Amino acid sequence: MRLADEAATLALGVRIAAVVRPGDVIALFGDLGAGKTTLSRGLLSALGLEGEAPSPTFAIVQPYVPPETRIPVAHIDLYRLDDAAEAEELGLDDLLEDHVLLIEWPERLGDALWPDALRLTLIRTDDGARCLTAAVPKAWEDRWPLT
């Protein structure tokens, strides 16, 4: 899927928000500046978050719960983790019980990334657009592709 600009990336987040539910994991892969946080902001905004969601790079886990958002979401940025074992201390399994996990830099989890995660990869193109590829697990088959 081609995302021509920032508005298209935000719009994709809005479309994902329409089908997301607690217990979902959305894994966002891509280099710095690829659009992971922009997509996350579109999703969070569509779920009711007012104002711009900060990147959780320093907090690592930024939870949003009703009434701030329609459903609980944990926006997670694993960029600063040096080892997958560090993620165990974050309590992500506990959050998954009733939150959507929106994870930037999921490759830092190593083999611990949930197999039913929707895996989205964003790559910048020479013209400033983004190319998105999706690895869609069974848990998402009835919701993807988005309409």
Automatic annotation (TrEMBL):
<protein>
    <recommendedName>
        <fullName>tRNA threonylcarbamoyladenosine biosynthesis protein TsaE</fullName>
    </recommendedName>
</protein>
<dbReference type="GO" id="GO:0005737">
    <property type="term" value="C:cytoplasm"/>
</dbReference>
<comment type="similarity">
    <text>Belongs to the TsaE family.</text>
</comment>
<keyword id="KW-0460">Magnesium</keyword>
<dbReference type="Pfam" id="PF02367">
    <property type="entry name" value="TsaE"/>
</dbReference>
<dbReference type="InterPro" id="IPR003442">
    <property type="entry name" value="T6A_TsaE"/>
</dbReference>
<keyword id="KW-0963">Cytoplasm</keyword>
<keyword id="KW-0547">Nucleotide-binding</keyword>
<keyword id="KW-0819">tRNA processing</keyword>
<dbReference type="InterPro" id="IPR027417">
    <property type="entry name" value="P-loop_NTPase"/>
</dbReference>
<keyword id="KW-0479">Metal-binding</keyword>
<dbReference type="GO" id="GO:0005524">
    <property type="term" value="F:ATP binding"/>
</dbReference>
<keyword id="KW-0067">ATP-binding</keyword>
<dbReference type="GO" id="GO:0046872">
    <property type="term" value="F:metal ion binding"/>
</dbReference>
<dbReference type="GO" id="GO:0002949">
    <property type="term" value="P:tRNA threonylcarbamoyladenosine modification"/>
</dbReference>
